[in-house]
Predict the structure.
Amino acid sequence: MARGESRRTGKLPASRDLSRRGLLAAGAALALVVGGSALAVFRTRGYAPPFGRVLVGLSPWQFFVVEHAARRIAAPDRPADASIPSADDTDVAGFVDAWVARTDRRRRRDLARFLAVLEHVAPLACGFPSRFTRLGPTQQDATLASLESSGSDLLRAGFEGLKSLVFMGYYRDPRTWALIGYTGPFVAPQSGPR
Amino acid sequence: MSGGIFNGRDAQLPERLDVDAVVVGAGAGGSVALRELARAGLNVVGLEEGAYLTSADFDQREDRMLALLYQDGGARTTHDMAIRVLQGRGVGGSTVHNTNLCKRTPDEILELWADKYAVAGARPADLHASFEAIERDLSVSEIEPAMRNANNEALRRGCDVLGWRGGPLKHNRVGCIQSGFCELGCAYNAKQNALKILLPQAVDAGARVYADVEVVRIVHDGRQVAGVRALARGASGNVRAQIDVRAPVVVLSASAVGSAALARRSGLPDPHGVLGRGLRLHPGAVVAGRFDGAIEGWRGIPQSFECTEHLSHEEGSDRRVWIVTAFAHPIGAAATLPGFGVRHMEAMRAYPNLAVLTAMVHDETSGEIDVDADGQPVVLYNMSERDRAQLAKGLGACARLLLAAGARSVTIPAVPPVSASNIAELDALDFSFVRPHAVPQTAVHPMGTMRMGEDPRRAVVRSTGEHHQVRGLFVADGSLFPTSIGAPPQISIYAFALHLSPHIIERARIG
């Protein structure tokens, strides 16, 4: 039984209430996701593992895509200002790698499929015949914007999920708090759960 | 019997327990059930899937606390991913991370349940003593104007200028230093909640609570409950041990999502197809107002003032919006603000000058809890057109309040964002863009998936909380509610658990 398939009905439960428009959008998105997954199977070679890092949740190609996406999603508003920490400085991709290792199978799979679409399908849909990670910053921004405003609810939700993870990785770092005038916690970090 | 709270991650655990009653979940409802059963001299254990954390563990960091205190690390959503569903996990449940709001179930709602949903013995007069008792236990009091932060003061000012109905809210906090980190757990132990007050009382009376122990199945024969099967998990989520608890009484207090999902995967009889249905969420969305002066909404007590101008609890009303403040710490704010990259960071620089309001819908939409192939909850919720219209109306009202309070501009975080700088611009807006997926929505009040009532064709449990078909199986959480209550459910859950506890005790004594 697939994820979301109801034990009671044996059907995809969400489909019961979808409007025709929603159904079409979901169908289109599903085709993209399935296509993306299939592409990813054949096109995950050629991604070098990140130097000096042992991945615990993401595969090398997924890490690479997250790293590129994070640089654009958390891009600084004043590029010349070296005091603004970058997504690399705050190790956003490393944070996402650790988050994925902790999360359940369903969310890992959803994220993997979305990253495959981002890397292989979304650029094509924007007219860029290349992987996302090989595009320049302007084209990467255009690709991400197309997902953010996609007619597919599924792709928009996927983008919002990735954006939330990136900002969780970015704004967890105290160096980013000064940028936005946030005074931060009152207490020092403690050890883990007892 | 010597009580205690035990950590399932590393404690020596029994393979089998024989008790008078087992309580699943140690949040608002579970803590009351545990206390009352233990005080009645019964041998009771509580099993909680999350961790046992105390004030010393709450370090006010979003990235760590979201992962520790919330179901699915704060990433739980409806199946279509349109609504983020924030629920507590761990000893104390959602009472650990909530903002301490204490509002009773409105009288109109209790009357509606009695008249239309055949709920017996739960009219306002019947519940009065339970509300009084639990509010006394938790030191509930009104937040004084002097303790109102700038975000809540903006809401009050907006109400005053517009002449809209509003007022201060009651909370369960004592010794609060107004740090503003309530939703990440209270490092100062000022929350008078299940974790601090009720569970210690239960333990003093002899209750045993096992944390990090997930109940995977209710054991029953279709007519009588016999206990539960549970798994203790280690720090990495690995299964350390299996525990079989034999008990003639099982109390489900694992939330409207968790209790219904457990019931579904346990194959309880459901001859009328009502189990898991009737889910209400109080879905909400936000509007941010940008002020010239500093608001610093992360400081001070959150949600101390409400606007009820657009809220009626009459069935079928077209005024079903509750408005309160909804300020978030940086991660939550960044995830909610529209866009990404350069423009997003520009918007984040205005963070100290933002006041944020949320419009929460007293919803009519009936969702459902199902389970997937892994037995995990699937939250099905397809917002009705009437509720969508209420959300749109509520967002417009939030924007109007903020402008009236002196905001230079207001923004609804849609894609693309929708802004207005004055009432004329606001009045010119077409709010048809407000729909699921187009505006980020959050829900923090799931309820109503194992509804109570005397009619088994419409209710899962009787008015006593006991299952219509399975003797000895009780529900004591927000699952009970036949409709949305249009108010934060914390006090209602505590009070209903207290109200129903004599029935649970009686059944446990009979055995």
Summary: The mean pLDDT of chain B is 96. The first strand of chain B starts at residue 4 and ends at 7.
